[in-house]
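Model it.
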Amino acid sequence: MEFVLVPFELRPDMPEEGYQMSELEASGHSDRVEEHLMRLSQRDGFPLVLPSFLPKTHRAIALGEIGRDQGPEVHRSVYRAIFDAYFAHGLDIGTEDVLLGIARDQGFNENEVHRIWDEGVYDERLHQFRHVGMHLGLESTPAALICNELVIGSRPYQVLKESLDRCVLDADNIEAEATRSA
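Modeled.
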């Protein structure tokens, strides 16, 4: 089974400088959720910073698409670096400096990255991803579409595993039914 990361801009009309969480009506996480995430990160040895700002992610997502076009391993590596910059180091992934540092670390040509951003090379693709998210009714992240089941919000591993298990079971049933019908 394969999964496909389909990013979308939750707030495409966000100003370039992003928002301070204090400017938003709600940060998207309750204190209880934040405390739980911090406990999990400490337990599992993953650094976690819950930044006080929400960056504009358009350029970050476009950087990820540069990686996608270079193959799944590069795509995953770029997204890991972007998520690490924001969630492990609290860096503003809406700024060119941070993203160009990631691009350099990934072996991308800085001038080519600038050209892609300036020319909006991935704007139509990102618009299509946004349309898919809107069609599914997504108004928050994270979200995962597993077969026909939409899982929205941070969920325990077990919830995702059970959803995947149902998906595999459904796929196995389809294959078995197709074999019986043949």
